[in-house]
Amino acid sequence: MTLNQRSHNRAHLIAPVLLILSGCTAAPPAETPLSDAALAAVTDDAGAPKDQLARQIDDLFTMEGLGETRAVVVMANGKLAAERYGPGYDKDTRFISWSMAKTVTGVLIGMLIADGKLSLDAPAPVPLWQRPGDPRAEITLRHLLQMRSGLRHTEAGDPPYESSEVRMLFLDGRDDMARWASEQPLEAEPGDKFEYSSNTSVILADIAARALTDSDAPDARRQAVADYLQVRLFGPLGMTSMVPEF
After folding, report:
1. Among 1, 76, 136, 171, which residue is least crowded by beta carbons within 10 Å?
2. In this structure, what is the dihedral angle of CA atoms 133, 135, 141, 144, given to the nearest 10 degrees?
3. Higher model confidence: residue 30 or residue 147?
4. Are 113 and 119 contacting, i.e. CB atoms less than 8 angstroms apart?
5. Is the residue at 212 inside a domain?
């Protein structure tokens, strides 16, 4: 037998082995069938494959280690595409907006500017910054809205208690959050550095309240902001469940 013949015979022996091994490869695990509740959460004209969208939303409620998902609402082309709630919650539940309130605060400031009560590029009306020689007097509403105030606000601290957000909410700033946030020194020139900042939104909310009332009473300030938002924003948009807690 020649070398070529031996190689040819060996190839015939190897081929069946490879076929057997390939047949033993594990098939990918089948996806868990979607529940009726998962499918019912997605409308028939969602603008996306119904099963695919339903599974993506289902993962938010069932995926291990993700934490608690209380509600998911998806809009597409101005219509409701999907809506699902966790146990104990429904469409009538009022949820805390957390950082979504930053957007409402920005809109509030924008409406006050449109109404002539504030000026976008004038020095931000924070009394603490208007003292002679205070470099923070250069901070404008535009800088605050863009989160480019230059103030020393560190959203995430290491350790956590060094976070300016944690300090403002729970530690040395909790008794007067707006004042504490305003007291922080500059670490950059206003306008130069972006820094995501909950402290900045609190300063803006305080500016809005002072633009709407001369009262220092918390209840009066809160009511002034709530009334203004109702007339200028919530009412015209048909938003009946919003409760501002500035």
Report:
1. 1
2. -150
3. 147
4. yes
5. yes
Band the pLDDT of 33: cuts 50, 70, 90.
Answer: confident
Mean pLDDT of the chain: 89
pLDDT tens readout for residues 203-214: 999 999 999 999
pLDDT digits (tens, 9 = 90+) for 46-62: 889 999 999 999 999 99
In sequence order, what are the residues at sequence separation of 6 or more whose Cβ sits closer than 8 angstroms to the Cβ of residue 187? 150, 151, 152, 193
**E-state strands within 10-57:** none
Q: Which two tokens stand for residue 245?
A: 């807690």
Residues 214, 186, single domain; the answer is yes
Structural domain count of the chain: 2
- In this structure, the answer to whether residues 57 and 109 fall within a common structural domain is no
Peptide bond into 159 cis (omega under 30): yes
The residue written with tokens 């220092």 in the block is: 216
Q: How far apart are CA 237 and CA 23, in angstroms?
A: 61
Q: Is 26 inside a domain boundary?
A: no
User: Please, which contacts does 35-43 make with residues 24 or more away whose CB atoms are closer than 8 Å?
Assistant: 37/84, 38/84, 41/72, 41/82, 41/83, 41/84, 42/81, 42/82, 43/79, 43/80, 43/81, 43/82
Domain that holds residue 211: 100-237
Question: What phi, psi does 123 have (nearest 5°)?
Answer: -55, 135
With vertex at residue 216, the alpha carbon angle to CA 195 and CA 123, rounded to the nearest 5 degrees, is: 40
Q: Binning pLDDT at 50, 70 and 90, where does residue 160 land?
A: confident
Residues 159 and 207 reside in one and the same domain: yes
Decide if 145 contacts 106 (C-beta within 8 A): yes
Q: Do 65 and 127 belong together in one domain?
A: no
Q: H or E segment at 174? A: none
